[in-house]
Amino acid sequence: MSKTKLNVAVVGATGAVGEQIIGLLEKRDFPIDKLKLLSSARSAGTRVTFKGQEITVEEAGPDSFEGIDIALFSAGGDISKELAPHAVRHGAVCIDNTNAFRMDPNTPLVVPEVNESKINEHQGIIANPNCSTIQMVAALKPLYDRYGISRIIVSTYQAVSGAGARAIDEMKRQTKEVLEGNDSNPDILPVGSLPVKHQIAFNAIPQIDKFQDNGYTLEELKMVRETKKILDDESVLVTATCVRIPVVYGHSESVYVELKEDYNLEDVRSLLSDAPGVTVVDDPANQLYPLATDAAGKNDVFVGRLRRDLTNERGLNLWIVSDNLLKGAAWNAVQIAEIIAANKSK
Hints:
Layout: E1 6-11, H1 16-27, E2 32-39, E3 47-50, E4 53-56, E5 58-59, E6 70-73, H2 77-89, E7 93-96, H3 112-115, E8 125-127, H4 131-147, E9 149-158, H5 165-179, H6 218-231, E10 237-244, E11 251-259, H7 265-274, E12 278-280, H8 292-295, E13 301-308, E14 315-322, H9 326-344
Helix pairs in contact: 1-9, 4-6, 4-9
């Protein structure tokens, strides 16, 4: 890690991802001279402890970034669109965890284990991909490099923490209500402007984000578009179905991938075992495979249930799990920040 100390801002410091970012900056001993914590007016004034010192959260504004070297954004797309250009104007490199700039052709969309070199192409803003996309491409990149990929079909089983703290609270409340024989009274999920809401306790909701005109949700289209951009390959065919389930932390994915070349299953297992940031848990004889409860709180992407498809000799099925707030958000952003810090010290 670079010892050149930098001034860092965290926008959305009191949110779930912001809290994880702050914790990682401390745990990783990121080279910080000054840490500025920013939020909405509602959360301004909150005090956060960092390395034994209390820091008062300030309201984010256009002039909050003077002297800042790296700004990590996780306060929503509208805030990023409004404030990231001001941060760049003040000389900061922005790492944005929202959907605001992901498909901007001038903004690198980065998963360090997959396309770290793209970081150097930034023009002030680097985008963090969607949480579900990050864990999938981190697991598939070694296979893409070795065999090529023609098609990906993914179904996700996504934790409620991806919808925010209120969704977690609603799931816990509903679980208690249902167990006691009472009505669940949903009012959060699915997140969106429509008044129709569904029970998440003991349920699966096949909607994450808003439906688009083609019948897919925005979350599903994010996975399609972002995968192609990160792999830098528009020829890869991708389709997704994204589902919210009553798990607090950890997104799970069932992934079917068609490779362009024949493969040996043991070679696939070896490739994944050697891949950076990937842990293989694949011992079905002993009922060992990736679980959301095991992945929660860990930075890695976990892969298991590796098996050759029964209908296509080049088809491969995988089960991929990762903590959506860590590798799916905060850890990916901090990894990028660490690379930027290391480059600044050269």
